[in-house]
Amino acid sequence: MMAAVAAAPLGDAARGDDPTVNELERLAAGLAGKDDALFLPSGTMANLAALLAHDVRAGEVIVEETAHIYNSEGGGLSTVAGAVVRPLRGRRGTLDPDDVRAAIRGAADLALAPTRLVCLENTHNAAGGSVIPLECMAAIHQVCRHVGIPVHLDGARLFNAAAHLNVPILEICRHTDSVWFALCKGLGGPVGAILAGDGPFMTRARRAAKMLGGGMRQAGLIAAPSIVALKDPYGPLRRDHALARKLAAGLAAIDASLVETECVQTNIVNCFVDRFADDASAINRALRQRGILANSKRTKIRFVTHAQVDEAAVEAATRAFAEVIR
Question: Which CATH number fits domain 2-231: 3.40.50.2000, 3.40.640.10, 3.40.80.10, 3.40.980.10?
Fold first, then answer.
């Protein structure tokens, strides 16, 4: 990746003439099976640009109740895009197509905000990296197409979902009208996201991204590593998933209450310390002192395996956790 940075030809990406960014966008659009793709600084900006491009203002957006776009993006869905959120309860992050059908509101009743968009998340962050089954995505897309409502996919860890399902991302993206995926998570790029969709949508999305400050100049410097990552994305991610399962098994061996091992599908391991503490922060600080970095919130510690984590690191994390619990 560093060699790609050093060799990257550069231009003005905001004007569309950075050859490295253009190559990345062509590659990403092809992988997703969409007409066009746009390189953006962050996933939050990608979600927000998509909301604006789908013209959700004064309408409802259906989301799963723990979705990142609803809970972790500063309220931009409402404050910037002007939409009303309609949260539905899912099962480990997956919405039931019948629940989506029942929640959709038309424009006939003037007292109601009509449904403008359904937003899915795959893999689902809050649900521990769980994957939406393809048949469920297809069913929700069919429900929405029947009433003329688009489906947007928050695919921050889209390639992890595809690696778990053993399909290319194209098979997931075919059940969406727009999609974004992160370049800086499992893929290992330094920064950025890709937003993709059909031609008219992407024209509107490019305008929205410009308004949000997404126009970059010599962005080929940060695009080049992601081209390297996209050439062979699935093998390394399957390795990450195997390491996550190993970590989950190691934690469960310390105490069965810590991890639901059967729920670990991709590269996220949610560890629940309710039996040992009312708050996970002290445990997490003790792990940090032993060189183990994770995130904690209330009684949950979230471990994520990625390119910088190997088998020795997983074993070290398990040992450190056992020491802290003792």
Answer: 3.40.640.10
